[in-house]
TrEMBL record:
InterPro entries the UniProt entry points to: PGGT1B-like, Prenyltrans, Ptb1, Terpenoid_cyclase/PrenylTrfase
CDD domains associated with the record: GGTase-II
GO MF entries: metal ion binding; Rab geranylgeranyltransferase activity
Name of the featured protein: Geranylgeranyl transferase type-2 subunit beta
Length: 327
């Protein structure tokens, strides 16, 4: 329409630069091709893939094309006796897949099929004495798991099942002198871990523990000449950091410190304009993971025509509103 054309021109983009139809077709086709390279790689983390793919479709306005009941019954067939979810049918449960399962059900407005208390007890059982979280029964500890536990329990309205104060203190103990956060106390700052720690603090109302100017500066320095963002100093830019860095900057209210047009340009340059999908860098092979992060990054940048995504919950804003404010 003429209005959209004007909005797009104002923001510096031509209409149709984002290949909406082709990206939606690409996501749907990966699900159907069961034996090519990408599908085989995805086999053990199919639950994560379902979350990336379905969230992308929703942001693009194409979620109506999927068979919701079939997805819900597959998701539920991945649930384990313990309450946790595996990456696929018959796989061991892990908190990583459990969050994806909850996010998929939230997207489809089917959270009511869950035994909420059983699932919440599984997550709560992974909290350690020092407030940290293990990913599964084998015990690896990482601030990724702190974020996941807090995000998941918040979506289920069961945050009271854990010791929130201890969980927050543990995340704060992973803060570094550069303002960033690592995977464990003393671990190097990395944009992915920063998303997790800032997200956990945002959801628990604890952002006062963040030095916003110091962290904002570190995050802005992730932008390289091409406009893309890297995850740490001296590293190559990668589309997925559009998500990890931009979402963190938005949560600490410093996204105006970055050149948003140049990030959007970098993401658009990573599209396969012929067959759909987005890659990590221009001219690399596309995958579902980077297609999700590219579209989610553009959504954070308010790219015309995309639905808004929530930077802390990593779900479309309309889904988060449905969960917390009813419909
Ligand atoms: C709901 C979005 C969402 C996430 C769930 C799993 C998780 C919570 C967060 C993962 C955060 C994280 C650590 C992301 C980084 C992923 C990544 C690209 C790692 C690569 O790191 P390196 O050091 O690559 O191998 P670089 O880019 O530094 O060369
Ligand atoms: Zn990447």
């Amino acid at each position: 329409s003429i209005i959209c054309f004007l909005v797009c021109s104002l923001k510096g983009f031509t209409m149709g630069e984002l290949e909406v139809e082709k990206h939606a077709q690409y996501i749907l086709s990966v699900e159907k091709r069961k034996d090519d390279f990408e599908s085989v790689v995805m086999e053990h983390l199919r639950m994560n893939g379902a979350y990336w793919g379905l969230t992308t479709l929703d942001l693009l306005g194409k979620l109506e094309t999927v068979d919701k009941d079939e997805i819900v019954s597959w998701v539920m067939s991945c649930q384990h006796e313990s309450g946790g979810f595996g990456g696929n049918v018959g796989h061991d449960p892990h908190i990583l897949y459990t969050l994806s399962a909850v996010q998929v059900l939230a997207l489809l407005d089917k959270l009511d099929v869950l035994d909420i208390d059983k699932l919440a007890n599984y997550i709560a059982s992974l909290q350690n004495e020092d407030g940290s979280f293990s990913g599964d029964m084998w015990g690896e500890v990482d601030t990724r798991f702190s974020y996941i536990a807090i995000c998941c329990l918040s979506l289920l309205h069961r945050i009271d099942k854990i010791n929130v104060e201890k969980a927050v203190n543990y995340v704060v103990s992973c803060k570094n002198l550069d303002g960033g956060f690592g995977s464990i106390p003393g671990g190097e700052s990395h944009a992915g871990q920063i998303f997790c720690c800032v997200g956990a603090l945002a959801i628990t109302g604890s952002l006062h523990h963040v030095d916003k100017d110091l962290l904002g500066w570190w995050l802005c320095e992730r932008q390289v000449k091409s406009g893309g963002l890297n995850g740490r100093p001296e590293k190559l830019p990668d589309v997925c950091y559009s998500w990890w860095v931009l979402s963190s900057l938005i949560m600490i209210d410093r996204v105006h410190w970055i050149n948003k047009e140049k990030v959007a340009r970098f993401i658009l340059d990573c599209q396969d304009k012929e067959n759909g999908g987005i890659s990590d860098r221009p001219d690399d092979a596309v995958d579902v993971f980077h297609t999700y992060f590219g579209v989610a990054g553009l959504s954070l940048l308010e790219y015309p025509g995309l639905k808004a995504i929530d930077p802390a919950y990593a779900l479309p804003v309309h889904v988060v509103n449905r969960i917390f404010f009813g419909r």
